[in-house]
C-alpha cells in the first residue's frame, strides 16, 4: 500500500514537479503537500461512505438540554467523525448535526460513520489514485502556475473519484430499502 509520501509523489509527478523524500523536508513542494494533505484527505473522505473508513459506535448522551426546540437529547460525535452514514433508529427518526453534536429525540443512538482514516495502508488502490489526483488538482496552480494544467488535473480527479466510488460500491452489499407507507403503496 502507498505511504503518505508516495501519495504526494504521485500527485507531484502528475504535475511534472520534483518529488519529495519526506513530508516535513525543507522544500517548497513538501510544505505545500503538508499544508494541504489532511484538509484534502478529510474532504475526499466526506465525499463517499468509503468501506475502509467506516466505524460503528453508540453515542454518548450529554447532560445538556438542547436549545433547539425540536429535539430532546444531545449526543457528542466521535473526535474522528467525518460523515454520518446511518443511525440505529431509522427510518422514523429525525436528527440534526450541529458542530460536533447530534441532536435527536431518540434516547439512545448508535451510528455508522466515516472516520478520519490517516492510515494509508488501509486505502485501496483506486482511493490512492483518487487522493493523489485530488492533491494534484488542488495544488496544480500553486505548483505549476498553469491554469490549463489545473483544469486538466481537476477533470482527471473527477474521473478517478468516480472510478474509486464505483469500485467501493461494488465491494459491499447494499442496504435493503426500509419499508414505509409510500413504498408499500406502490405495491
- The amount of helix comes to 40-55%
Helix/strand/pairing category: alpha+beta
Reading the helices and strands in chain order gives: HHEEEEEEEHHH
| Intertermini distance | 47 Å
Count the strands?
Answer: 7
- The number of domains is 2
Give the strand content.
15-25%
Low-confidence stretches: none
- Mean pLDDT equals 92
Specify the biggest β-sheet: 4 strands, antiparallel
Integer-rounded radius of gyration: 20 Å
What general form does the structure show?
elongated
What is the spatial order of strands in the main beta sheet? Answer: 2-3-6-5
The total count of helices amounts to 5
Characteristic key phrases:
four-stranded antiparallel beta sheet, 2 domains, 5 helices, 187 residues
Task: Describe the secondary-structure layout.
Blueprint: H1 4-14, H2 28-46, E1 54-58, E2 60-61, E3 73-76, E4 81-87, E5 95-98, E6 101-104, E7 110-115, H3 125-144, H4 147-170, H5 181-185
Antiparallel strand pairs: 1-7, 2-3, 3-6, 4-7, 5-6
Helix pairs in contact: 1-3, 2-3, 3-4
Structural summary, described in words:
The chain has 187 residues and is an alpha+beta fold. It has helices at residues 4-14, 28-46, 125-144, 147-170, 181-185; strands spanning 54-58, 60-61, 73-76, 81-87, 95-98, 101-104, 110-115. The chain has a 4-stranded antiparallel sheet with strand order 2-3-6-5, with no helix packed on it. It is elongated. The chain starts with a helix and ends with a helix. 26% of the residues are buried. The model has no long low-confidence stretch (mean pLDDT 92).
